[in-house]
Amino acid sequence: MQVRMVDAAIYEELALLCSFFLIGICLAASYDVLRIFRAIICHSAFFINLEDLLYWLYVAVVIFVQLYDKNDGRLRAYLFGGLLLGMILYAVSIGRICTPVLIRLVKRVVSVFLAPVRRFTAVLHKKRKKGLEYCGKLWVCQKKRLKKFWKMVKMSVNKL
Question: Which of 16, 34, 94, 105 is at 20 to 30 A from 24, Cα to Cα?
C-alpha cells in the first residue's frame, strides 16, 4: 500500500514538472510574439525597456499563479529547472526557426495591407505640395499687391 502512495506522489510531481516545462515553452513563445511586434514597428530604447519590464512582470505573475494553483505556493527547484528547460529548448529549436519566418511573413502581410494607404498618402502629399506651391504663388502675388497698396498709402499721406 505504501508503494502505491509514493508512486502517485511521484506521478503528481512529474505531471507538475511537465506542466512547468510547457509553461516555459508558452512564455518563450509569448516573448517571440513581442519580438515580432518589435520587428514590425520600430521602437526607441525606452519603449523596448518598458516592454521588457512589462513582459517580465507578466512572467512573474504567471509563475506565481501557477505555483500557487498547482503546488500550493511551495517553491521547488526542479519546477524552475523545468520552466528554464522549456524556455531554452523552445528558443534553440522552434523559436530560432519559426520567428524569422514569421517576421518576414507578417511584414509582407502588413505591407500588402498598407500598400493602398501608402498610395493614398502619396497622392495626398502630391496634392498638398501642389497646394503649397499655389499658396506660395498666391502669397507672392498678394505681397506685390500689398506693396503697391502701401506705396499708394504713403503717397496719399505725403500729399496731405
Answer: 105
